[in-house]
Design goal:
Blueprint: E1 3-13, E2 21-26, E3 47-50, H1 60-64, E4 70-73, E5 78-81, H2 91-95, E6 101-104, E7 106-109, H3 112-119
Antiparallel strand pairs: 1-2, 1-7, 3-6, 4-5
Bound molecules: iron/sulfur cluster (2 copies).
């Protein structure tokens, strides 16, 4: 494996297992556990979101989207991206000055050191928590 669609990488993770580990969250998880705390990993495609704390509601993301894919819903104060229109061009992120617009996924080509790291990682046995 030399490239993959990664949601995020957590270093020094101490949750859900023994010891300190580097956890690589991949996109496209086929499981639907009731206790899932990472639903943004379910789809292989990118999901977009806005950090509510830093978003200034300037609507630049909405206006800059060439596909008109972003809608603001007053009810719930949320920005929803129509992924059937979105081309993953990321113009909305580039234009967002506070950096509030975020993408849940990115392609990563693995460097040699990462390939080495991943090849040494043990995966949890089936049925383990
Ligand atoms: S451009 Fe950024 S700050 Fe402005 S509404 Fe969109 S997410 Fe919020
Ligand atoms: S990634 Fe591109 S197409 Fe998708 S919502 Fe942002 S600006 Fe629009």
């Amino acid at each position: 494996m030399s490239e993959g669609r990664i949601l995020r990488i957590e270093k020094l993770s101490s949750f859900d297992g023994d010891g300190l580990r580097t956890v690589v969250f991949l996109k496209g998880c086929p499981l639907r556990c009731m206790w899932c705390s990472t639903p943004e990993s379910h789809h292989v495609e990118t999901n977009f979101g806005n950090h509510k704390d830093s978003c200034t509601h300037c609507f630049t993301c909405v206006e800059s989207c060439p596909e008109n894919a972003i809608r603001y819903h007053e009810d719930g104060d949320i920005f929803i991206t129509d992924m059937s229109k979105c081309t993953d061009c990321r113009v909305c992120m580039e234009e967002c000055l506070p950096g509030s617009r975020i993408a849940y996924a990115r392609y990563r080509k693995l460097s040699k050191s990462w390939k080495k790291t991943l090849s040494s990682i043990s995966t949890p046995a089936a049925g383990s928590p």
